[in-house]
Amino acid sequence: MMMNINTFLGIFGAALGLCGMVSALFTMRTVRRWRARCVSVESGLAALHREMELVASISVKTGRRVKRVEQEYSGVSDRVEQVELRGAAPSFDQAIDYARRGAEPGKLTQQFGLSRGEADLVTRLHGRKKSA
């Protein structure tokens, strides 16, 4: 059985065509997988984008709250500084002595650096009782 060149070329061409079809099928299958993966990645990116918008929104709200708290309590550090500078115990002790002698809250505020509320409290607790 002798193979002539035409038969050999025919078999080689059929085998080459079959390899081309198999290769095309694998390529199509791979392309489908990549498309599915791209769709998955795109949906994941969309979800990530939504989460980032939510985080940004929360961050803005938190920033506003922090600013409001800072504004509301901005005087606290000044007040603490005043209390630390005056030395709390001696001032209160002296203010109590003055209140017992009949000093008014205004004088306590002025002389000992007490706040109006502190001076009122010292006067009410330790001041002279007023007779009706």
Kindly describe this structure.
Among the domains are: 37 residues; 47 residues, no CATH class. The protein contains 5 helices and no strands. The model has no long low-confidence stretch (mean pLDDT 87). Helix content is 86%, strand content 0%. The chain has 132 residues and is mainly alpha-helical.
> What gross morphology would you assign?
rod-shaped
**Radius of gyration in whole Å, from Cα?**
44 Å
> How much helicity do the residues have?
over 70%
SSE arrangement, N to C: HHHHH
Can I get a quick summary?
With 132 residues, the chain is mainly α.
Task: Supply the key terms.
single chain, 132 residues, rod-shaped
Ordered list of secondary-structure elements with their pairings:
Layout: H1 5-72, H2 74-86, H3 88-100, H4 105-112, H5 116-126
